[in-house]
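Researcher: Go.
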Amino acid sequence: MTLSQIQEFYKNQTVFITGSTGLLGKLVLRKLLTTCDPKKIYLLIRQHKGKSVEERLEILLDKADLGRDKSEFKGKIFVIKGDCGLPGLGISQDDRDILVNETTCIIHIAATIKFNEHLRMAAYVNVRAVQDLLNLAKQVRDLKAMVHVSTAYSNCNQKHLIIEQFYEPGMTATELLTMLDSVDDETITNRTSELLGSWPNSYTFTKAVAENVVKTEAQDLPICIVRPAILMGASEEPAPGWLDAIQGNTAFFLGTYLGLIHCNLSDTDPIYLIPADYTVNIILAAACYSTDKNSPPAIYNYTGSEKNLLRKSKLYEYGKLCCELYPSLHMVNLCFLVFTTNTYYLKFCQFWLHLVPAFFVDLICSCLGKEQRFVKMYQKLHRTCDVIGFFNVNKWKFDTTNCEIMWKGLKEKDRELFPFNMENLEWKTFLANCIIYARVYFLKDPMDTLPQAKRKRKLIIFLYYCIVFALLYMLWSVMFNLIY
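Model: Structure:
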C-alpha cells in the first residue's frame, strides 16, 4: 500500500516523546502506532504517586485505547525513566547515550499546566526542561525534526492580535532560573505577582519564556512550535468525544451539564476550542515541515478556523440542547448559566445560586451524619473561576497563516489520515459527542438509562418552578404586609 507523505516521514523513525502520560501524549503515541510505522518510540516517564515507570506505562497503554492487542506494539515502545522537574530531565547517562545515538525525531509535550502552579516548579518543568531537551537535541546524531508544544495563550499579555512569531518574554530563562535558585519558596510566592508582570499566571508566563529559549538556544536545529488553544475531546479518533480525564474546561462544562454550575465570569465572544485528535495531527504534520536546520523555527497558532468560530453564546445553546436530548441520571438541577463580565454581579450570583443551596444541602448531610462537602466544593470552584476569568473576558484574534499554508500543502491522503482543518467542523455534533462520551465513561451512566434520565429531568423542572413560585409568593407576601 502506498504511504502518504507524513506516513513516509515517520516510517522507521525513532521518536522520543515527553509528556506521554498526558492527553496529547497518549494520542500522539496512539497515532504513531496505529497510522504510522516508526521503528521505536521512547517515552519519558517519571515515577508518580507510588507507581513505577513500568506500571505507569501499562496504565498509559490501557488508556491510549489502541483498539488492538497492545502486546503487538510493545516491541516498539521503550521507557526512559526521567522527570522534567529535575536537572537534565532526570535521565541517566546510559539512557542519554541511547537517545543521542538512536533518536531521529523529538516531540516535547510535557508541561505543568496548572495555572496557579508555584513559580519555581512551573519554571523548572516548563523552562529549564526545554533548555535541557535542546541541549540533548544538539547532541543527537541524526535529528530530523523536533516539535515544541506551547500554548496559544503564551503571549496573552498581547492585545487583540497574536501572530505566528516570537514575542519578547518578561525575562530570559537565565534571569528567571538564576533568580529562582537564589531565593526561597516563600520569597518567590511573595514576589510572584511582580515577576509575572502582565501575564495572568505562572503557566502562560513560563510558556512565554520557554518559547524564547527555543528562539535563542535552538540554532541549527530542525524545530518548530505548535501553539494549541483549549483542548477538548476527540472529534474522530480513537472515538468521537474521547477524553482521558475530566479537568479544566471540560470539568466546568460537565458541571454545567449536571446543573451544578450556574454562573460564569465571561463574555459571549468566540471561544477557541479544538479537538484533541486534530491537535495531534497538526503536531505530527508540523514535524514533517520542520526539517530545515537553516530556517527560523516555524510557529503554528492552532486555534481553529476564522470561518467557523464558536461563540460562547452558541456553546451554551448547544450545551443546553445536549442537556435536553441526553440528560444524565446524575443531574441535580436545571442546566442554565448566567454570563457576566461584572465581578460584583458574579459574586452575587455565586452566593445565591451556588453557596446558599450548597449550605442547605450540607445542613441536611450534617443531620444525616454524612460528609459536608458542597460548600467546600463551590469555594474551590469559585477560586478556579477567578483563575480562568482572565481568559473569558479578554479578547484575542489569532493569526493562523502557517497552519493554513501547511493544510493547503498536504496531499489528499494526508488530509484524510491527519485531518486538522476545522473549517467544516460541525460544532453541535462535536459537542454532543463530548457530552455523550463523558456521560457514559466518566459518569458511568449508560445510554440505556436515557428514558429514566428524561423523566428525572422533567421532575427537576417541575420542582424547580415550584420552588421559584413559592419564593416569589413569600416575597410578595412580605412586601404586601410591609406596605399594608
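Model: The CA atoms of residues 45 and 56 lie 8 Å apart.
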